[in-house]
Design goal:
It contains 17 helices and seven strands. By secondary structure, it is of the alpha/beta class. Strand 3 and strand 4 form a beta hairpin.
Length: 505
């Protein structure tokens, strides 16, 4: 009897082990099938690259899922093939051939007349034709001295002495004129030329200026324009929408063995731009400076902005350019599905680009986005719901889909608000200038130097946004902010790049 029970127990244990091994084998087969599908997709991509075939992508293989998830995946929406059923506006053919020389350039005229016949030498000539040719020409920039002779005169009647006031200067006893100081700021913050190269160029022209003197000139320029920059910040806080982004900047701090990693932020809308320097990238500083703001903020999905949005005073708007890049990067591991998701975002961008070409704004832009873009978004959401359950947690495509699921309200806020752009690319492009300047100068000489650089970067960026020549504006502003400020007696509102633009009109 005991032997029979022992045999039964052994048989039961063997049966349990067999079932466990069978389950493990089934899991391994499933994982092997998934890997085979991945290898097939990668091989298809490699073959297209080597053979240079058209990018016609094969249909996505169904994932190893069962039940409702599999049916949802197989019935997922297809990416839009066309941006819209409406006829696309015809684009004009790009002009070919040599472009004419701009007519606004000052002309240097030369007349070449023959004095005698090239065949017989006779000097009696009649003009029968004229050949005209135009070429771009350059005259090397001149560094000049401005000498002002101020005569003092005595009145014959009362005997009083009178001396006229000197010409405008950026500050009392300045070594340079307003035009020269504007040229220096333009060289450094528009052309992004480091001060040592400017000093070397001046030395070749026989103008010897110490580096410390050039730094002092920049300090003075920032001080003169700090009020205008502060006014721009107030205008941004009072506006219904602004965008922001940031980048690093090394700063020399006394008693630190290495350069400190500071942070430069840009806040802008379509009219003004303000750069601000912060010693570190913290949430408290952002919350404090945006405390008066009431509106929509376009920014990256960073945790430090969460406290700004939780107050309810500021609405979050996202950057679809980041999401578009995420889908593009996911094509390395999921070429078919990632391309499908990217096609939805591409269609959204196509409709937005069409609206910009038509010059739509305000309510017309809102109607266009609601009519053309909202249906694409709804299909895109259904596509993500079908694809998301079929992906492994480590998939880059999974991260791209989660990015849109977690931040969808912010990313698609532009559809309902016409003043909100589709992405934050203009702000990021503005930082290209900061990156080039940072590469040239390596670091800011001090914390104060970083703040002054931000003032001048913001003024130049505002000139770019207003479409005015920065050097012309700087000269105009220094005349009114310098030694003759009391004569002009203008408020700050009338000394901005926008005011300068109106004065030109």
């Amino acid at each position: 009897m005991n032997e029979l029970e022992e045999l039964r127990r052994e048989n039961s244990e063997l049966r349990r082990q067999t079932l466990a091994l069978t389950a493990q084998i089934a899991e391994l087969i499933t994982e092997l099938a998934r890997l085979n599908e991945r290898v097939s997709e990668l091989l298809a991509v490699a073959q297209r690259k080597h053979r240079k075939l058209p990018a016609d992508k094969p249909p996505a293989a169904p994932p190893i899922v069962e039940g409702e998830a599999r049916r949802a995946f197989e019935q997922r929406p297809t990416a839009p093939e066309k941006l819209s059923e409406e006829p696309q506006p015809k684009t004009k053919a790009k002009p070919t051939g040599r472009k004419p020389i701009p007519s606004h350039l000052e002309a240097e005229e030369h007349e070449l007349r023959p004095s005698a016949c090239a065949d017989c030498g006779e000097t009696a000539l009649d003009m029968v034709d004229e050949l005209i040719e135009e070429k771009l020409h350059v005259v090397k920039e001149h560094q000049r001295r401005r000498v002002v002779h101020r005569f003092t005169c005595r009145c014959r009647v009362c005997g009083a002495r009178t001396t006229l006031r000197s010409l405008p200067a950026p500050y009392e006893r300045s070594k340079v004129t307003c035009e020269w100081l504007a040229w220096l700021v333009y060289q450094k913050f528009w052309l992004l030329t480091p001060l040592d190269r400017i000093r070397r160029d001046l030395a070749e022209r026989g103008v010897a200026i110490a580096m410390s003197t050039l730094v002092t000139f920049i300090e003075r320029a920032a001080e003169l324009l700090s009020g205008v920059d502060g006014l721009h910040w107030k205008q941004l806080l009072a506006s219904p929408w602004m965008a922001t982004d940031g980048t690093g900047l090394k700063v020399l701090v006394p008693k630190l063995p290495v350069a400190h990693n500071g942070y430069v932020e840009l806040y802008r809308n379509r009219e003004v731009a303000v750069f601000q320097y912060e010693a570190d990238k913290t949430s408290d500083a952002v919350v404090a400076k945006l405390q008066p703001f009431r509106g929509t903020l376009t920014a990256d999905a960073e945790h430090r902005f969460n406290a700004v949005y939780t107050s309810g005073r500021v609405l979050e708007a996202g950057c679809n350019a980041h999401g578009r890049r995420k889908f593009r990067d996911a094509e390395d591991t999921q070429p078919v599905l990632a391309a499908e998701g990217g096609a939805f975002i591409g269609a959204i961008y196509g409709e937005e680009e069409k609206a910009q070409k038509l010059g739509l704004a305000g309510e017309k832009l809102r109607e266009h986005r609601q009519r053309q873009i909202r249906p694409i978004i709804e299909v895109f959401v259904r596509w993500m719901d079908a694809v998301d359950p079929t992906l492994l947690p480590s998939e880059p495509l999974k991260a791209a889909i989660r990015y849109y699921k977690n931040h969808g309200d912010a990313l698609f806020r532009f559809v309902d608000d016409p003043i909100v752009p589709i992405d934050n690319s203009p702000t990021e492009r503005e930082f290209q200038n900061v990156a080039k300047l940072r590469l040239n100068m390596l670091f800011a000489g001090s914390t104060e130097g970083a703040h002054r650089a931000c003032v001048l970067l913001g003024i130049v960026a505002t000139c770019r946004a207003q479409g005015v020549h920065a050097q012309a504006y700087l000269t105009w502003a220094f005349d009114r902010l310098g030694t003759h400020r009391d004569l002009f007696a203008l408020p700050l509102e009338e000394m901005t790049p926008a005011a300068f633009k109106k004065s030109l009109a």
